[in-house]
Amino acid sequence: MNQTSKILSTYSADAFGVASALFELGGMVIIHDASGCNSTYTTHDEPRWYDMDSMLFVSAISEIEAIMGDDEKLIFDIVTEAKRFHPKFIAIAGTPIPAMTGFDSESVAARIEKETGIPSFGFPTTGMKTYISGADMALSSIARRFARKDFRPGRDHRVNILGCTPLDFSTNGQVESICRLLTENGWIVNCTFAMNTSLKEVEELGKGDVNLVVSATGRQTALFLEKTLGIPYLEAVPYGKKFSTTVLQALEELYAGETKVILRHSSSSDCENIIIGEEVSSLSLALSLECETGKEFRVLCPTNEGPLLQTNDVYTPYEDDIIKSLSNAKTVISDPIYRNILTEKVHLVDWPHEAYSGRIYRKYIPNLIGDILYISEKL
Amino acid sequence: MLRKVNGYEVTIDSVPISQITFPGPFRAGLEFSSPARGTWNIAHQGMLIPEAHEIFVCAASCLRGVVLTAYEMRAEKRFSTVAVEEKNLIEGNMEDLIIEGVSDILQKLPKMPPCVLVYTSCVHHFCGCDLDMVYRELSKRFPDVDFTDCYMNPIMRKSGRTPDQIMRSRFYSLLKKRPIRPGSVAFVGNDFPMQKDSTLYQLLSQAHIPIYELTSCRTYSEYQDMAEAEYYIVDYPAAKVGGEDLQERLGGKLLYLPFSFTYGEIKENIIKLSEVLPITLPDFNAEEQECNDALDHAYSIIGDIPIAIDYTAFTRPLGLASLLLEHGFQVKRVYADSFIEEERPVYKALCRTHPELEIWPTLSAQMRFAADHSKSDYLCIGQKAAHFNGAPHFVNLVENGGWHGYQAINSLCDAMIDAYQNEKDIRELISRKAWRCESCI
Question: How far is A185 from chain B (nearest CA, A)?
Fold first, then answer.
């Protein structure tokens, strides 16, 4: 039955995607929820919680406030703390109860902005979708509001990296490795949106000549920048040596004037090698392993139904469908939690994903940028 | 204290005890979540019932915390989920979703569990889900399985019984009425065992009184044996309503012997116990003297270093502050977002004797910036106090630690001396969920 999980975990939710995407930008993020969402997010999904004093709060809505539709208390509470802490922006992310009561997050944000003069956002998250939709919405909204439109690509080999959150890249140096790879190959990294970056750098997103989208959470931002400023984008994570070269070449093509480059992998319907994970990173890993080992991989993407998925790839968030999709698998590369649904005959290569198993395998998350030996030698 | 936030200086405030409103010292507003994770949650607690299988029916955002709790405590094989999606709210088929979802999971389990805890959430409450019908149907479909209704609905925390009170009651709702075994007791509502050296346990075991305890049950059958108890001993305030429910349903009697640091109340508890059970009364003066000696000894070692206490360590943080202050310790700070009514007399006394005692919130938004990551000289009792004060010298314990009576005071003195003499890794210890529970972290 769809929607049931006998044993599998659940991916981080949309509201947490908002929080993760905006964590480092100096804003104040409020998850509009009774309680619990804040500790869930900060315990399992936010490796920066202990070290960075980011303003992430929960509204602590009560039964009576929900029944009476009392948004005034929420507005008062947010305005009070905003006046005290001077955030650079304010973001409200909804959860199941606000979704049920018809909470109008955008109108409330507009009221708050009027009262404080601080740019404010209302995100209609419901707590029922994955982090991809929340983070994608949050990043693109920030870009729309703050990225200056008066820039035109400066032709000085600048690249933005879009879609960086610890949910997909943890804090083990992967984002830094992508920057290093690009820098060593003649690129100026303009902005890593949104890790190790500032709102000032976000304002200057338009200086980028090309965008490298490293997860589906950066897609809407890329589309926005393409549409408004004509910046072309490539969706890929430069895993492994050979595929990194492919990614760098594709970026050069875009820089040289190509408007669209899509890196696609190929696999047959009876392919017995499967990668489970987020769309862009899984497809990049499939391509990288194809380059390095000559083996084909299909992708099973439980997080989002993205355009990069090919005919033989699968999108499904449901345990039963996932089990069915793995019925002929001989090798699976995935978060270790998926071990629970694999038969003993299947060879599992661990590829922990913070958005799935949280902090449990955090210390084992590999940095595959420029080198996928960690995976390939286990195949 | 002053903290720099986005380039502005922000004052982080406490309130002197003499100026607080009791029992809720602080206005409810935006809330912060401290990284101290030692307290137990409802997923941990349900796993105390041997052989039980937990099924949470919630939205993804609510499921994530509990499913990863189950994995972290290596209990994932006893844990399943039914994800509520937007279409269920629109279509109004929540009852079907629970019935079919739970049925689907049970049919897939390698072995049918003897009992299933079905946790519904805030959305079920708000959409008027007919839970009575749901459980009737589930019991009809699976007559050999005991179902109980559990709840993850924090939105109800200010409406009547708190979620904590409700859940500490629900975990005993599966007990089936049996003939009472005269003279036996059950400890009800605790997350970890009553320590064998606790005053309460000692008095009962010396009198050879049969003791039942959820935390020591190894099978569902042993769990059911608890229904034989004549007396339900509750020492944790939030568990009192659970004891009352049992009294009404199974016919035993509630003995509420609240955890306390006050000699008078400890003595009162023991006398209350002796009125119904054949225990031998201790020499109260000697016991108190032993505690006083332990406190004086601890003070002779610890001296005048500042002390902070938080409410997660003990249900009576003000009672503890009062006891320590009476023995010369320099208690400066108490962290608590609210107090239980039972603390009112101590609160009033402290207002007179130590009006400057600082009361700090833990949930208030300002606490985001309160943590001192440089090592402070505070000795802390409790994980939250340790976090906020950056204090590697701390007593790591939650929810009274299974201690009780005079033993609690003596053991605390030992723990304080140990904390004073030895540093702990704050981050490492407080990040683990559920103190004393198995953890892969």
Answer: 35
